[in-house]
């Protein structure tokens, strides 16, 4: 029987791959071994390039005012009572590669509660659920590409990648651009988290400056007296878009 | 500008991203379904597939309203049945199976974006419902991974293999 995988094994693997270049544009390589679930779930054949200017993926789904309600961006107002935890606001802009704001597009988030527990049957570790917190929000970006959420700071939680594996606190983000090629699902982390070096999912971004782009900034000017702490996190979507779509959306 | 790196969708998106009717882009047309498999040939029960397509006339201007919500209680009340949004989202079930009901796109293919636990960066592929010049540019064995097989009239089968001998062709848009 093989020895159980421990943090030292993972640390060694992470160190070997640090600065290895990873995938293009700072994205993680899909075959990042320290995150064991990648082993059977990444393609081994090279991707096939599509250069067709008429490709359907240069356009993408649209969302509008019927797809969200005004309360959807406040995760602390979805139940009769207030959730436990540190109330925070998270705001920032969604931009394309040229720095143009992505306007009127859907931003979706999900997260664990303050104790690090997800409202999901597969998360059964012994941390309490919070009857006043679901952990799901959505909004549309405004004309500056800005989004804004009120929520509580999620807790760290254990997972079974290796013995004593813990994820740093994070909020999952799902983003759309004007083109399907710009689709992005990612995770926002909180500054100064001591779990960063141990986490193979964050470390799958092997370039330090690219990794920093996943960490929000504490922004004191966004904190509200007697109410909440503010974080700022801007997001840049990768991928080309049809130029004719730039007007009108 | 430098893009924000991708991170895996993880195992816990199920209460956040899927929505009722997510796989019903349009009714009265065709059904496309299949399984997602990993490199060992095991079904992937925690993949999330997104679909984007033109309408029957090839129009790619998607309309809002895929996630239309009830302003009284916030519940998803579904598409209005008039506007063609072109967008679908379906989680695989415990068997790794997914089903999409839609109309035949005017340009011949449905775009697919694959997310899963263990997949650090999503993958794009296409479901072709007929011949296409792009398919002709691929070696025959790989070409077959992009073509849906008609099981019976109006029902098309399209399996996605993330890895292995039957690995699906995945696409790069640069």
TrEMBL record, chain A:
Keywords from the named record: Dioxygenase, Oxidoreductase
GO biological-process terms attached to the record: 3,4-dihydroxybenzoate catabolic process
Major enzyme class: oxidoreductase
Domain of life: Bacteria
Single GO MF annotation: ferric iron binding
Signal sequence segment: none
Name of one Pfam family that matches: Dioxygenase_C
Matching Gene3D superfamilies: Aromatic compound dioxygenase (2.60.130.10)
KW Cell wall biogenesis/degradation (keyword) present: no
Segments forming domain Intradiol ring-cleavage dioxygenases: 90-118
E.C. designation(s): 1.13.11.3
InterPro entries: Intradiol_dOase_C, Intradiol_dOase_core, Intradiol_RC_Dioxygenase, PCDO_beta_N, Protocat_dOase_b
PANTHER family per UniProt: DIOXYGENASE, PUTATIVE (AFU_ORTHOLOGUE AFUA_2G02910)-RELATED (PTHR33711), INTRADIOL RING-CLEAVAGE DIOXYGENASES DOMAIN-CONTAINING PROTEIN (PTHR33711:SF10)
Entry's family note: Belongs to the intradiol ring-cleavage dioxygenase family.
Protein name: Protocatechuate 3,4-dioxygenase subunit beta
Origin species: Nonomuraea terrae
Automatic annotation (TrEMBL), chain B:
A family per Pfam: Dioxygenase_C
Transmembrane segments: none
EC number: 1.13.11.3
Gene3D superfamilies: Aromatic compound dioxygenase (2.60.130.10)
Keywords: Dioxygenase, Oxidoreductase
Limits of the Intradiol ring-cleavage dioxygenases domain: 30-107
GO molecular-function term, one example from the UniProt record: protocatechuate 3,4-dioxygenase activity
Domain of life: Bacteria
Family per record: Belongs to the intradiol ring-cleavage dioxygenase family.
PANTHER family found in the cross-reference section: DIOXYGENASE, PUTATIVE (AFU_ORTHOLOGUE AFUA_2G02910)-RELATED, PROTOCATECHUATE 3,4-DIOXYGENASE ALPHA CHAIN
Annotated protein name in UniProt: Protocatechuate 3,4-dioxygenase subunit alpha
Organism the protein comes from: Nonomuraea terrae
